Each structure stands twice: as C-alpha cells, then as structure tokens.
User: Which sequence fits this backbone?
C-alpha cells in the first residue's frame, strides 16, 4: 500500500500551474502498488479531468483545494466500452473526476473541490426559473462521475459551485456510502443538481448538507447509457439538510425504468420550490421529444417510504406526484408518507392518469400548513409584460388514485 502526497509527483499547488498530470501520476502509482492514499494538502491544485483507480483514496486535507480549470478544451471527453457515452444527458461527455468499473475507491477529507461554476454563467434578464444562464458549453456537465463501480466511499468533502451540471453522478454502481458531504451551489445557477443516483444498488446517503440550484437529490433509472436494463433499488437517504431551487428529493423522469425499495428519512427541507417530486413529463402528440435523457422505458416506482421530514419555506407543493399524458408508465404504487410537518405555498398534489392510476398511497401523522412564500416564482407575466399573482390557493388534490389512506392528517389552507 502506498501513501503519498501529490507534490512527490511534481504537483505545485499554487492555483495557477496545471497539476493534472502530477495528480494522475500519483493515483496511477498508488493503484499499481496495490492501493493506498493520495493526499492533497496545503495549496490549490489546478486541474482538468482526473481518473480514479481501484484501491485508491483521494484525500483532500482541510487546507487544500482541488480547483477545476475553466478551459473547457483541457477536459478530455470520456471514451468507454462500458457505457454509451453518446447517450450522456445533454450529450456532454465530460466530467471533473471520473471512475469506471473501479472497486474500493474513496474521496475523503475536509478540503474543497471548487468547480468554478461562476465562470460558466452570466446574468439572465429573461424571467425564468434561474437568474443566470449557462454561456460556456464545453465544460463538464457532471463534476464527479462513478460509472459501474463498487464499494465506493465519499466522505466530508465540500463540493463548491458545481454549476450547470450535476455534483455527483452515481451510475450503475453498488455499495456506495456518501457521508457528511457538503455541496454548496449558487441557487440561481441553472441545472446544478446535487447527488444524482442512477440505476444503482445499495446506495446510502447520510448526514449531508446540500444547497442545489436544481434538484438536491435525484433517484432515477435512466437506462439509455447502459447496455442492459438495470433497476435503481435499495437507496437510503437519511439525516440530511436539503435546499433546492427545484425539488429537494426527485424520483424518476421520462423514460426511466424500475425504481423500488427506497427510504428517505429524518430530513430537513428549506428554501425550496418543491419538497418531494415524482413527476413524469410527457411529450404532447405531434411535438418532438427534446429530452436527451429519455431511456424509452415504461416507468415503475414501487415501495418508496418518506418519513420524519420537516419542510419549511417551500414555495409550491411539498409533495408532487404527477403523471402527465404522453409518457410510458408501468406502475406507480406503494408510496408512504409518515410524520411530515410542512409549511408551503401549496398543498400536496397526487395526480395519476385514468390509464395509469397511482396506487396504494398512505399519509400518516402529517400536517400541511399553507404559507405565502412570495418569490419571483409566485408571479406570472401578463399580456403587457407585467407581473400578476398566479393561481388562487390550492386545496390538496388527489386524482386517479387507488387505495388512498389518510390517517391523522391535517391540511391547514
């Protein structure tokens, strides 16, 4: 086993010199020696894409920063026989830290990974979801990507400004532990998801603090990138504080496959657009499908438990379960919500379709209180370009639901 500092391989750590080759050489040497720890300490290590290897722990000390270059051409695209990179969401094949088909790997330490998202956006005058828009398109759309890995640990590290791209993408992995992580995104930067878990098994996220410009934690089964249909199952998220410009927890998307047996517990949601969202958009007849991450499957979501959640300052629905026309649904059933205390601008919405009802939904020991959290998202433009207050207060809505149970539930509208 080799324990080494990247400076032993020529890294400078001055925040100016590109240290990619030195960091990679340290990782490669550590793996060749049978594994061990590669340490960044006492500096800012400027880098493009780094590839982890089996048996290697990348350790970032509290006085160190791994700093992403803003030169998009310095990031080489991922080439792989393991997955179909042409089907990568948004057709972006770049990432900052990459591991493919590795085992026993880790990213640890109290240091910082600075993705420099601020350098890929500009203020946006148009009224929309975000106050900024992406203006640089050749930078990575995913910061840390684990593909086909097993026995993975991510612990304590601060991921800073993963703008216009996902913080972590955990795809087709098993036995993943994500503990004590901090993700600090600017909420006004677009598409900055926190942790994105896709087609993986036995993934445990705990004790994390996430501020996201898009969904904070995502659980999906997008099979378009994989060579075989793979469910996403046995995911647990617990003891986390989540803040999001979209949903704190999102489950499923158009064309996803099978998602089942997941638990989300002991969570705090603050300053979000939505609390829990399982909404599957559709493509209206006659319109092109512009989703770059449509896996083409009939979505199945079963046995999902959400319990012990405090929701505060949620602009819209604290819980939104919605199936739109024009998508493929196998079944959405076995959803349980227990011990939820919520203050939000709207009430829960559960809306299935006649041909695809949502089945076996239980609320137990929950209180939903309507508060008026006014932000730009509370207003809609009128014909003259001004702003109007939107829809009147909405009562809880349950449409095309079979087997709905409300036990000790209060809706204060």
Assistant:
């Amino acid at each position: 086993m080799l324990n080494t500092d990247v400076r032993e391989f020529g890294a400078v750590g001055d925040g100016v010199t590109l240290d990619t080759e030195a960091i990679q050489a340290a990782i490669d040497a550590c793996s060749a020696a049978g594994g061990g720890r590669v340490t960044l300490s006492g500096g800012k290590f400027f880098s493009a894409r780094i590839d982890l290897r089996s048996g290697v722990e990348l350790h970032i000390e509290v006085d160190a920063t791994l700093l992403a270059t803003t030169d998009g051409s310095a990031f080489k695209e991922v080439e792989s026989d393991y997955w179909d990179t042409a089907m990568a969401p948004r057709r972006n094949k770049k990432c900052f830290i990459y591991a493919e088909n590795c085992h026993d790997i880790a990213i640890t330490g109290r240091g910082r990974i600075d993705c420099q998202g601020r350098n890929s956006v500009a203020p946006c005058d148009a009224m929309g979801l975000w106050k900024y828009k992406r203006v640089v398109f050749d930078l990575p759309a995913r910061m840390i990507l684990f593909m086909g890995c097993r026995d993975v640990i991510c612990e304590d590290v601060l991921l800073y400004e993963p703008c216009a791209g996902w913080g972590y993408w955990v795809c087709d992995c098993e036995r993943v532990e994500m503990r004590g992580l901090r993700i600090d995104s600017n909420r006004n930067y677009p598409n900055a998801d926190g942790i994105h878990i896709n087609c993986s098994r036995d993934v445990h996220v705990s004790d994390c603090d996430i501020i996201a410009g898009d969904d904070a934690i995502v659980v999906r089964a997008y099979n378009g990138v994989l060579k075989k249909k793979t469910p996403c199952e046995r995911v647990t998220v617990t003891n986390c504080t989540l803040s999001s410009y979209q949903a704190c927890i999102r489950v499923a998307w158009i064309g996803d496959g099978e998602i089942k047996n997941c638990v989300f517990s002991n969570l705090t949601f603050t300053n979000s657009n939505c609390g829990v969202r399982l909404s599957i958009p559709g493509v209206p007849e006659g319109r092109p499908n512009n989703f770059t991450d449509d896996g083409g499957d009939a979505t199945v979501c079963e046995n999902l438990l959400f319990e012990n959640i405090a929701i505060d300052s949620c602009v819209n629905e604290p819980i939104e379960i919605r199936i739109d026309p024009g998508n493929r649904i196998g079944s959405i059933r076995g959803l349980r919500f227990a011990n939820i205390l919520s203050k939000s601008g709207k009430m829960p919405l559960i809306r299935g379709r006649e041909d695809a009802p949502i089945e076996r939904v239980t609320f137990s020991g929950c209180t939903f209180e309507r508060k008026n959290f006014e932000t730009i998202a509370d207003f809609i433009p009128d014909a003259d370009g001004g702003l109007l207050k939107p829809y009147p207060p909405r009562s809880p809505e349950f449409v095309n639901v079979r087997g709905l149970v409300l036990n000790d539930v209060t809706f204060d509208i």
